[in-house]
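dumping this here so i dont lose it
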């Protein structure tokens, strides 16, 4: 029996919003830490604006704030209900979706999600600054991991699981692409900085934002290089936040849906196009044609997967 479109939609977006809350925390952390490495005039604001551009929330921020300082950016990214991608908005939306499908998820998943929202909604934004901001960003990541652990450890491997996992990896792929694009295209347009101390510090932060710093050093024993880092976050299938890893998991979970329902839908073609983009290339080709252009096209194809999935399984 096919799951109701509304239930499938809620499960898909529940997972996406939990992942997005974590990803917003990751983006803010890398933007904040990069701003601390810069002593150039206007450098701090530049990094924070670049981070918001990567998250596509810069226009909404500019409509409400004149200056991009740490406090205003952190508030907008973490607590502003008018920002649909803020951690506050994501956790609220995730909890709303979870409540709508309470009987389709496990008690552990619900308690994890509900507890995270209740605790976060009690935090006073004015109390979150400096070291406390970094502590809160870590808390958001930990609560996302807790929910993901409850999901993987307790839910049946049925069509609901497939929709949840598809949402997770669609969102994660989008975030990894945006983190890479933020660094390579927006933050370093000046070739004189490439290979310098600031460049290396920023690449290190990019790896930390993707929880890939130690794993990178395990695979590559030399110094940080743009080519190797991009390869690690795009084409290494063993790296759980790489684009190829996420694209393969998206297709794997859509294939699971086709087995449950006995046929493939248009979303399978969209997922195949996304996967082909990272399986049928190499870093030399990507850099030759432009990393920024590659990442933009990947994000576009990833969005088409969501659109096709919505149509295929009657999300609307």
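and the seq i came up w/
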């Amino acid at each position: 029996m096919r799951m109701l479109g509304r239930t499938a939609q809620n499960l898909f977006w529940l997972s996406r919003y939990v992942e997005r809350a974590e990803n917003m925390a990751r983006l803010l952390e890398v933007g904040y830490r990069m701003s601390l490495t810069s002593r150039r005039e206007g450098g701090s604001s530049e990094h924070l604006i670049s981070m918001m551009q990567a998250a596509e929330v810069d226009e909404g921020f500019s409509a409400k704030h004149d200056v991009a300082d740490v406090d205003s950016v952190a508030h907008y990214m973490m607590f502003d209900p008018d920002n649909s991608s803020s951690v506050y908005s994501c956790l609220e939306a995730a909890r709303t979706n979870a409540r709508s499908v309470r009987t389709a998820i496990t008690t552990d998943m619900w308690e994890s999600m509900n507890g995270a929202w209740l605790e976060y909604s009690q935090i006073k934004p004015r109390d979150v600054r400096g070291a406390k901001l970094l502590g809160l960003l870590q808390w958001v990541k930990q609560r996302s991991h807790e929910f993901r652990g409850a999901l993987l450890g307790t839910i049946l491997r049925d069509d609901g699981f497939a929709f949840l996992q598809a949402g997770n990896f669609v969102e994660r792929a989008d975030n990894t692409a945006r983190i890479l694009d933020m660094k390579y295209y927006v933050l370093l347009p000046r070739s004189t900085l490439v290979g310098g101390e600031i460049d290396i510090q920023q690449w290190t932060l990019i790896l930390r934002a993707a929880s890939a710093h130690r794993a990178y050093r395990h695979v590559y024993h030399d110094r940080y290089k743009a080519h190797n880092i991009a390869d690690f976050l795009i084409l290494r299938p063993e790296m759980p936040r790489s684009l190829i890893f996420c694209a393969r998991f998206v297709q794997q979970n859509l294939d699971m849906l086709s087995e449950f329902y006995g046929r493939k839908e248009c979303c399978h073609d969209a997922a195949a196009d996304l996967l082909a983009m990272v399986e049928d290339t190499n870093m030399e080709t990507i850099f030759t044609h432009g990393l920024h252009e590659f990442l933009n096209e990947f994000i576009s194809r990833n969005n088409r997967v969501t659109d096709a999935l919505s149509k295929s399984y009657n999300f609307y």
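Residues 1-154 form one domain.
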